[in-house]
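Run log // design_07
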């Protein structure tokens, strides 16, 4: 396992010791485009949000939400894992669906349904 970047002491200009070597000023590295790979952009996020709003949830996502509503978190995780293939993807999907339920509840609390007489 990685322990993070190794921090070396400043160069002393002396040929021996822990900080041996010619003293130089480090150049700031320019960030490569590959460093931002996987980061969600504003445009893509907007497009995905619009699609999610129009299309709604997939049937398996609705079932995960139903399991979460009745308090079967572990069963929801197992179901999502069977559908998505990996444990990490299933955990992320379960959290996404739990957030969707919270958003629905917040929307209902904020805008109560009109009572018909």
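design_07 sequence
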């Amino acid at each position: 396992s990685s322990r993070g970047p190794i921090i070396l002491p400043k160069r002393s200009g002396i040929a021996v010791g822990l900080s041996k070597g010619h003293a130089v000023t480090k150049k700031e590295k320019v960030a490569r485009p590959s460093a931002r790979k996987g980061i969600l952009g504003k445009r893509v996020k907007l497009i995905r949000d619009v699609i999610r709003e129009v299309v709604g949830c997939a049937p398996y996502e609705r079932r995960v939400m139903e399991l979460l509503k009745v308090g079967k978190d572990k069963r929801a995780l197992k179901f999502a894992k069977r559908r998505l293939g990996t444990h990490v993807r299933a955990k992320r999907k379960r959290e996404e669906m739990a957030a969707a339920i919270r958003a629905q509840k917040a929307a209902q609390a904020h805008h109560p349904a009109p009572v018909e007489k």
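The radius of gyration is 25 Å.
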